[in-house]
Amino acid sequence: MCLILDKTRTFPQKNGKEVQLRVYGDEFYARYETMDGYTVLYDTEKEQYCFALLAKGILISSGAPLYKAVPRGLVRHLQEDKGVRNQKFDERYQLMRPQKSPPPGVSATLGRNNGLLPGTQLSQEPKVKGLTILINFQDVTTQIGKADVEGLLNGDNFTAHGNSCSVKQYFKRLSGNRMEYTNTVVGPVTLGKNRTHYINTPCMKEALDLAISQFGVDLRQFDCKNRGVVDAINFLYAGETLYEEWLWPHNYSMTYSHNGMRTDLYTIQSLGRKPVDMKIGTFCHEAGHLICRFPDLYDYGSRDGDSDPSAGMGYFCLMASGSHLNRGRFPAPISGYLRNLAGWADNEILLNNPGRFQAKHGEYNTVHKYLVDNKPNEYFIIENRTRLGLDTHCKSSGLSIYHCDTLGSNEWQGGTADKHYQCALIQADGARNLENNRNQGDENDLFKKKEGLILSRDTIPSSRAWGGMESGLKIYNITEPGEVISFETGSPQEPEGSGETIIKESRPSALIPDLDPNGITDQILFFKSGTIENIRVSIDISHTYIQDLRVEIETPWNERITLVDKEGGNTQDIRCTYDSETKLAALKGKPFAGPWKLHVKDLAKRDTGKLNQWKVEIDYKHQEKILKKEKIETMAILDMDARGINSIISISETGKITQAMIYIELTHSYHGDLAATLTSPSGKSVTLIPFNSLGTNQGILSKSFSTTSDPNLSPLISENLQGDWTLNVTDNWKQDKGSLKKWSVELWV
Fold first, then answer.
1. DSSP state of 484
2. What confidence score (pLDDT) does residue 496 get?
3. What is the four-CA torsion angle of 9, 10, 12, 13, rounded to 10 degrees?
4. Which residues, 6+ apart, have CB-to-CB distance to 87 below 8 Å?
5. CA-CA distance, 248 to 270, in Å (whole number)?
6. Please, what are the domains in the chain?
7. Disulfide-capable partner of 398 in 21, 118, 384, 448 (CB 3.0 to 4.6 Å)?
8. Whole-angstrom Cα distance, residue 380 to residue 402?
9. Is the pTM of this model over 0.70?
10. pLDDT tens-digit profile of 265-309?
């Protein structure tokens, strides 16, 4: 599919000269305007373009050709009603959709095959060969020869006419040398009628018949999987792109059989008039559908139950509008989200544990990925999009952060829990211009150099999961754009040494539900290890009747201390500080690493309020790490065995734990099958990896777990060190296999 928004193109008329029009749409539905903004239609009776009128929500021809005066009272930018537009889209889509497609009315922006389109995915094949047929019409021919096209598609050093590279080199780079896509070029063949005839009559079968009869094409050469199906057929027609009906560049299926071979998917697009017209952008976009089964990441507002247009990924991905950069000669790279789905990103760097990371530009086999807990289909991907290499014409320069969901659709710009983009660019300026269809991308969309906290639950833009829940992703300290961009995840580094003070605060601005015993909960997380010498907790709550409220603070070891309990009479608002000299005295000498939670409940009716902010200040004594013990052993993980395998680390030292960190390294062909638990010497067990929580990832899994960041591990605090610590790993589903390589414990007292 090929989206055109506000681009000027030349159109033929059977009864008149060519005209220049602005185009808005794709092959399913499009609208055309004159250069001064009047909507036009092709009048089939007059066989020329005429000014359009709007009658009961439908565009009709006024009968006035474009060389006439504008009809009196006609207004600019007429558009059909959404219902009319959607009906026309559905009719066109049902006519042109592939055989293995979703139901009518559902588009290629919704990838139903783990984010990809239905059909055979060839992106894992090392060599794919397509057939490309050059087409002349009776009245329109091209001066571009077969050798020119072979250079455009297959050249090793092709950069002619401002193109970044050949189609072969583009996919070779983006796949990390995993796939080589070449084409055998045939023709040109000359069709039997003029070009305008093929606007409403498909030309593909006629062209293929001529290619076989005139050039002896053997379709068996184009079947890399020996399916009896041609992998890829491309039709390139003479002249400039004609954005009308069957000549609008598109990718669909055709039924054709010859000598035991049949066709399936094809693409069609223009070749141009002279070699200077040649460009790789549209060919690469359509090949993304054809070979890799990538969905469109643009939105034209007529699909997947949505009727409002937005920009989707705009110019930031080949499969959105990025194929048009530098007039189609320097298309945007395929985004890290789609490369990951294609299986090209074999170096997957997980960001769920705090650390400092480096994103290298052009390292297309690598993705930096943050997984959202308990949502295997939802995650974030980060990559370097500095204006270098294939990003030379990128609309911005810096670090890109994508919010991804394989069950989403880039028609759904609303960003709700149920309907949201499949891949959304988190725009650094927070303006959401792509979702609001204000532009296709601008200078402020990517993250540039900035110190401190840059992206979290409470920033604008935010890293909240779809639906507004916290994802846990926090980004700090991004360096300037360049070959390498560094960034940090987790929380900012806390001070070292003894006698220090740590201050952390949260500004949730969260509404407190009236007469709700569950109330609201907010969290502040400490990573530093140490014990409390003094602690101060400040809260700021707006409320019309504070006698209704109960406020509690919960420690990392799950102890609750009541700060406010239905007191204060009919006064308004709470702005107080509580310390270890009064209500928090019991916290002295206790470890503070881990999650601290503030619970606020309104236990009576009628009055309302919100938690504006709260702050925790801790004067602490630094605690040294007492030990680290590691077990290195290769143990096969039994397939579909509920008992699993046990590995034991024995500790002879004594003391009570104030903080713990556990590290696991294993390899497995399907991470989602796995579950892991750790049992302390006293028999207390904690879950490290819940079953079916790691999705479809495969290969090496290296993961750390800490009492400072994972509340599930809080039962380990105050446990005795001495004794046997047991790691249990189970494979809970059939067919896949793996082994435990090593694991370790780090313990503080």
1. E
2. 45
3. 80
4. none
5. 9
6. 4-96 (no CATH), 127-292 (no CATH), 322-488 (no CATH), 501-621 (2.60.120.260), 626-748 (2.60.120.260)
7. 448
8. 5
9. no
10. 999 999 989 999 999 999 999 999 999 999 988 875 544 444 456
